[in-house]
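Why does residue order matter? Because the sequence determines the fold. Keep that principle in mind as you read this record.
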Amino acid sequence: MKTVAVTQRVSVVAERAERRDCLDQEWARFLSTCGLLPLALPNIPDVALELCTEASVAGLVLTGGNDLAALGGDAPERDALEHELLQLAERRGLPVLGVCRGMQVIQDRFGIPLRRVEGHVASRQTICIEGRREEVNSYHCYGALECRAPLEAWAIADDGVIKAIRHSSLPITGIMWHPERCKPFAVADVRLFQRVFKVG
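Structure:
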């Protein structure tokens, strides 16, 4: 199995003065189903980058949770880490798959403006994916209504919000739905991760 580095949300526990890194256990189940082994990264850039090097990771998964600090989020250390991971991926040609917030980080890196959107927190939402009407889940309050080079949009909601992107020349992909929250896991999502990370 290939090992992929996986970012984690920051959970602020004020009563204990702690900033905890955490990851839904469903991520391990989903990635295992895809034929991938997750390596959870701490939100400490120098440690996380060293882990990526020592473990010879085959790619990066930028997960959901925590708004970007520029949008009022409370985890600037995570923003810093994920931007450094994107730089690492670009230098090494590593595949990246950003999910929800992870896609927003990719958009932010390439200068795509994000804004507050309404009606995108729903257990099921029908969107257009590469010309087909498909149902996905949706749990985000920020999104983009435009896409420009080098990013391309390949899924769009009815109100124009971009729901999936890919880089025109680098193996960087983003989706705004959560594959780990589907019961059972969607075959299309498993195939997407396998395609991005060249499993099989």
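The radius of gyration is 16 Å.
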